[in-house]
Amino acid sequence: MLLLPKLDHHSEIPMYVQLYDYLKNEIVAGRIPEQSRVPSVRKLADFLGISTTPVELAYNQLVAEGFLVSRPRSGYVVHSLPDPYGKLGSGGPPFAKVRRSPLRDEKEFAYDFHLSKNDFSHFPFQIWRRLYNESLKEEQKQLLFYGDPQGEAGLRQEIAAYLYQFRGVKSAPDQIVIGAEQHQLLSILSLLLREHSLRIGVENPGYPLLPSTFRQHGYEVVPISLAEDGIQIGELYESGVRIVSVTPSHQFPRGMIMPIAKRLQLLEWANDVNGFIIEDDYDGEFRYHGRPIPSLQGLVPSSRVVYLGGFSQVLAPALCIHYLVLPESLIDWYDQLYDQTLFEQASSRLHQRTLQLFMERGYLGKHVRKMRNLYRKKHDVLIRSIQEHFREKAEIIGRDAGFHLLLRVNSPYSEKELLQLARGAGIRISSATYTWLHSPVQERKEFLLGFGGIEIDRIEEGIKRLKEVWFDGNDGS
Amino acid sequence: MLLLPKLDHHSEIPMYVQLYDYLKNEIVAGRIPEQSRVPSVRKLADFLGISTTPVELAYNQLVAEGFLVSRPRSGYVVHSLPDPYGKLGSGGPPFAKVRRSPLRDEKEFAYDFHLSKNDFSHFPFQIWRRLYNESLKEEQKQLLFYGDPQGEAGLRQEIAAYLYQFRGVKSAPDQIVIGAEQHQLLSILSLLLREHSLRIGVENPGYPLLPSTFRQHGYEVVPISLAEDGIQIGELYESGVRIVSVTPSHQFPRGMIMPIAKRLQLLEWANDVNGFIIEDDYDGEFRYHGRPIPSLQGLVPSSRVVYLGGFSQVLAPALCIHYLVLPESLIDWYDQLYDQTLFEQASSRLHQRTLQLFMERGYLGKHVRKMRNLYRKKHDVLIRSIQEHFREKAEIIGRDAGFHLLLRVNSPYSEKELLQLARGAGIRISSATYTWLHSPVQERKEFLLGFGGIEIDRIEEGIKRLKEVWFDGNDGS
Which residues contact A348 (CB under 8 A, 6 or more apart)? Predict the structure, then answer.
């Protein structure tokens, strides 16, 4: 066996690594046969004219990885590799050439009626940076470690106080479970409720993330129709489900408010069937004419409501902070789930601490009030623009709250054609079809128009253009 | 009906809110009967000596919430509430008094051999703050919105390059899936592999999060024993599973390295059974004598290895950035899962961007090298201290890598007693029993000692105290 490594004494790669690489390649290629003995450390060092240290280090590494075996008295022997790289192939290119289009449409639109975009020009950049810097300091370096899996106690306390003040939610900090995003919190919830029932009723149409997450966890999802004032209670009783998810403050996507009488009926239903209500309050802070509608959770001292909220709409999605408010009866289940799994908190402690400071010092309340005024103006301009330009050609469904409304259009074009025309004119809107659990037989031509992200002085122009491409055959060309 | 609200003209609460609260309470209490008509806006305003605006706003709010109904010509009528608050109770205290002990032991220890704590005194606080501030700017405010559900493309590119350089992993950025923490990524993985098989083999003993997560998704978990050099390949064939999870670079918790021959056997097994290997490389960067062991994933151009890594050990858990490297054959499944669920990315875009800058500018490589040196010193002091103080009374299992070793103790005390003695002396260590899928019949008295978080000059003292309380009956009192 002739070992003739090309060693570069001036390379940045240490000598022992060069030697290790060379020997490994020779073994893999079969040029140093199995079971053969390699020269002793001293011999190879002499032969190569280098010190013994790099040779020893290289041999040690090859032993650690299993290429060589160290045998007392006989030195280092090449280990037999079962069916060496021959059959499986060796190496391959450093980077595979996997490429596909991104999961989400990244196109820029001149008129962006994105369903859930926020207006970030009023985000408190400076305050947030300052509070983040205050949180990430050497003196509190333990904040870099794993925290409370349920979420930081200080933040949970702030959330409980905030929810009471802004949403009428009654909770203790220990009922609050923080998470990074909804899919993850809904996964946890579906695990907590599994012992209770494996069927869940959902509003149809409604927000699809919840049913798809519960389905992933083996639930049967039962669509429940909507009446003018929210979910059909009679149908709910008939369905036999014992868990239901609702959006009582602002139904998604149709925007109705569940009146107090129906709320009480729903709570009675939960009592009657020994069931649970999931209240998804995704944008409850944002009501534009009149006060926010208080939560269902705080209406009666009920142990049957799971409340779901987050800071994506109120502040920004990129902070990745959402939460559940569990009824007391589910807290023991949560503790058990933790004991079985030992998961970690997914929402960054640094952001949790920053948000806590942001709330403690009263910035959040101020921010919500400011944004509510801003979104109200946009909302009003959008409504006015639609009325002015579309007149009887379209109907507005759901208003006065949240970040979107639904536009039902009377048009001979198909839904697909209408979407293409809008897209062609640089207008982002989306079809509401995906909110139906079973696509309705008849095409509805209902579109979701968000008004949070678009600049206020683009709204009317966008609506005017939309009406033109849809009705005046004016495609802008 | 006599309406006598106490209105405070000097209160911070707006007049219409005071009036709304009063009317709502009267309705709920039944003092304004169902179906009765309330005074017209003008009449009530005159009666109370206020303008009509607050009365109108209060009525509108009560209509929105469903307490009043507006009837043409007959004015506002009180809606009938089904079984009003009577049966369900009304209100309740603002904060329930739910209290329980936190999920995790928060005790401070004088000698903290925590299993996975990092040394944060060398965290690059200033650089991280600077890069975070650079990421969160008005000019790039769109970073506050939802990003790529798979993780930011720029960070995925950096991770692909890093993994190739540091771990020999061969991947394209599109194979990388970013997430906030392991439980969530393992949940996604278990959904991706479900069509393939609902049985998974795991190392026994091993890291319990993986089997518990797969069990939550309906998998049968099959424990596979360890030989001296890693998982038993024969047993793996016999088990009939087609998915297996391994920690080849540094077995958890026993610390052995899987030699090249066994790695090739394992890859052959995956070929033979048309299976998948999950390579959990939780601390692969940290090897203290010799070079890091290259990943299994990069060994051959195989489409059968899922690689799992993260930045908790390398940087800090609080950043909440982990990742999967999917083989090409699973990418379509991932896209399908996304289409079905429309989940959002759980790891904050702000931290993803900060990390991307941190990597682009070469800070990560430097940090890893620095920390490797630091942890090597701690590792060496721990080994030396144990050898010196325990001598033949204990055996060290697994060394030269990661953040922990396993200490097997010869003692007449039970494991529980040994843990209590340690705790009493202010020493945090943990039993390795929880790493076994089925508790072994005989008590093993094996303890996990982490050395990452403890200050270097506390190590020897801690080990000395541990030996004293365990063997010399010296409980420090």
Answer: A180, A320, B180, B318, B319, B320, B348, B351
CA distance linking residue A200 with residue A239, whole number of Å:
10
Contacts of B184 in chain A (CB under 8 A): 180, 184, 346
**pLDDT for the residue numbered A36:** 85
Q: Can you give the pLDDT at residue B476?
A: 47
Residue of B nearest to A353 (CA): B318
CB of A195 within 8 A of CB of A222? no
Q: Å from B329 to nearest chain A CA?
A: 11
Q: Which residue has the tokens 């090449």?
A: A78
**8 A C-beta contact, residue B34 and residue B78:** yes
Q: Would you call A314 helix, strand, or coil by DSSP?
A: coil
Q: Does B350 touch chain A (CB under 8 A)?
A: yes
Half-sphere exposure of A403 toward its Cβ, with a 13 Å CA cutoff? 22
Residues of B in contact with A88 (CB under 8 A): 264, 267-268, 271, 300, 302
Encode pLDDT of B243-294 as tens digits.
999 999 999 999 999 998 899 999 999 999 999 999 999 888 899 988 888 8
Q: Give me the residues of A, 102-141, that contact B with CB < 8 A.
A: 102-104, 116-118, 120-121, 123, 125, 128-129, 132-133, 136-138, 141
Query: What phi and psi values does residue A374 have, to the nearest 5 degrees?
Result: -65, -50
Q: Which residues of B touch A399 (CB under 8 A)?
A: none
Which residues of chain B have a CB within 8 Å of the CB of A125?
Answer: 136-138, 141
A265: distance to nearest CA of chain B, Å?
7
pLDDT bin (cut points 50, 70, 90) of residue B122 is: very high
Instruction: Report the C-alpha gap between B160 and A264 in whole angstroms.
Output: 55
Could you identify the residue written with the tokens 């069509």? Answer: B195
Give the Cα separation of B56 and B68 in Å (integer): 12
Closest by CA to A430, choosing from A445, A410, A441, A452, is A445
- Give B36's Cβ-side CA count (13 Å radius): 13
Chain B residues 364-393 within an 8 A CB cutoff of chain A: none
ipTM above 0.85, yes or no: yes
CA A43 to each of CA A449, B36, B280: distance values in angstroms, whole numbers, following the listed order: 78, 107, 39
The answer to whether A139 and B69 have CB atoms below 8 angstroms apart is no
Contact A181 B340 (CB under 8 A): no
Interface check A333 vs B, CB under 8 A: no
Closest CB from B125, B142, B262 relative to A137: B125
Q: Do A137 and A354 form a contact (C-beta atoms < 8 A)?
A: no
- pLDDT class of B83 with cuts at 50, 70, 90: low
Least-confidence region, from A294-303, B119-128, B259-268, B462-471: A294-303
- What is the Cα–Cα distance from A247 to A207, expressed in whole angstroms? 9
Identify which of B79, B174, B400 has the shortest CB distance to residue A261: B79
Please enumerate, as own/partner, the contacts of B188-195 that have beta carbons within 8 Å and a separation of 24 or more: B188/B324, B188/B334, B188/B337, B189/B278, B189/B306, B189/B308, B189/B324, B190/B214, B190/B216, B190/B217, B190/B219, B191/A216, B191/B217, B191/B337, B192/B326, B192/B330, B192/B333, B192/B334, B192/B337, B193/B243, B193/B276, B193/B330, B194/B218, B195/B333
Model confidence band, residue B341 (pLDDT cutoffs 50, 70, 90): confident
How far is it, in rounded angstroms, from Cα B364 to Cα B348?
19
- Cα–Cα distance measured from residue A165 to residue B66, given in angstroms and rounded to the nearest whole number: 21
Q: What are the 10-residue block averages of pLDDT along chain A, 477 residues in total?
A: 80 87 85 86 89 89 88 85 55 58 82 93 97 96 94 96 91 95 96 95 96 96 96 98 96 92 92 96 88 86 89 96 95 92 94 97 94 96 97 93 94 94 96 86 88 96 97 67
